[in-house]
Specification:
By secondary structure, this protein is an all-alpha fold. It contains three helices and no strands. It has one domain.
Length: about 55
């Protein structure tokens, strides 16, 4: 919805009208490296095996 290339309104004004934070407009996600993805898969597998351990006190 935000027009960054040829804005008729400034990005600040567009964000204000849409009630968005400007940081969200400029954010570019960083891809995860393979080691991090492998760790997340292990954590997911452990959680699926023992979901009761994820509950705190």
């Amino acid at each position: 919805m935000i027009d960054l290339k040829r804005p008729r309104l400034s990005v600040v004004r567009q964000c204000t009208l849409l009630q968005l934070n400007r940081s969200g407009v400029y954010y570019r996600p960083v891809p995860q490296n393979e080691a991090n993805l492998a760790l997340m898969r292990l954590i997911d597998a452990q959680f699926l095996e023992t979901p009761y351990m994820a509950r705190g006190k």
